[in-house]
């Protein structure tokens, strides 16, 4: 008998099916706050660009069109005050595929390193990307505590600010400095940067391009999760290496999607409007959760509430909210063992649906 190969674990959100069924049984249906899937409409001009680009016939450049890369660089200049040349920007098909695959590509480049450092409570794909590459994921919340051996073995360091699921803001300058001191690329997932509430939004590229990548998506910023448009920018050699590997593998953002993304990246008004929507929902639903006995503060960023469940029983709280309120939330251990005792609430539904939950809970 041959040795057992890799068997994928259950997808985290599949564990919510019983609670989902209970919530859906309510009159008026399920109010799904478990996944950060935008429900608000994208700008009309973006949708129009998707239908009128005339780029459907040909293969798009894997790295992204010149217009797309210039739009991404221009947005970073406006939002963060950083100057990044379009040659140091490349497209990705949304950012999840990049997060899941980049470790394997880095391992081909540096085969003597096998460890991926990532936060202990985090987007599950950081850990899964390491596993899929045959690497060792290592939870790290304090870079000063990383041993010399783990630093030597480190293939990359993931940081996420504002963070999913907690909404915390990271010290990106410290992460960049640690990576450079140890020869470890730092991959900074910044897809929630537009929804920074404590101060101005930041990118790791404010601290220079050497040894770092900033990863961005239009899924959250512009309510375009269905288009799968993202980009990465930073260290010139690293951007070039990854874009060449991806070219060989055939990763391409469709031309019409790139055309729509250009329009979205060039417009900031719709983002300001979306910020107002999310802030209203965060404030409102924090009070709903507090009335149910949860402890919760407004996040430093993102559109998530990270709430301490009553009595520390996150799964029990999830089931109770589903049964009484018809609302689905995510228990914190879906994001790592250290998340146990909390729930994540994605404020992606409109206010009328949130008010319906409040009424049901009484």
Automatic annotation (TrEMBL):
<comment type="similarity">
    <text>Belongs to the class-I pyridoxal-phosphate-dependent aminotransferase family.</text>
</comment>
<dbReference type="InterPro" id="IPR015421">
    <property type="entry name" value="PyrdxlP-dep_Trfase_major"/>
</dbReference>
<dbReference type="Pfam" id="PF00155">
    <property type="entry name" value="Aminotran_1_2"/>
</dbReference>
<dbReference type="InterPro" id="IPR050881">
    <property type="entry name" value="LL-DAP_aminotransferase"/>
</dbReference>
<dbReference type="InterPro" id="IPR004838">
    <property type="entry name" value="NHTrfase_class1_PyrdxlP-BS"/>
</dbReference>
<keyword id="KW-0032">Aminotransferase</keyword>
<dbReference type="GO" id="GO:0030170">
    <property type="term" value="F:pyridoxal phosphate binding"/>
</dbReference>
<dbReference type="InterPro" id="IPR015422">
    <property type="entry name" value="PyrdxlP-dep_Trfase_small"/>
</dbReference>
<dbReference type="InterPro" id="IPR019880">
    <property type="entry name" value="OxyQ"/>
</dbReference>
<feature type="domain" description="Aminotransferase class I/classII large">
    <location>
        <begin position="30"/>
        <end position="358"/>
    </location>
</feature>
<dbReference type="GO" id="GO:0008483">
    <property type="term" value="F:transaminase activity"/>
</dbReference>
<dbReference type="InterPro" id="IPR004839">
    <property type="entry name" value="Aminotransferase_I/II_large"/>
</dbReference>
<protein>
    <recommendedName>
        <fullName>Aminotransferase</fullName>
        <ecNumber>2.6.1.-</ecNumber>
    </recommendedName>
</protein>
<dbReference type="InterPro" id="IPR015424">
    <property type="entry name" value="PyrdxlP-dep_Trfase"/>
</dbReference>
<keyword id="KW-0808">Transferase</keyword>
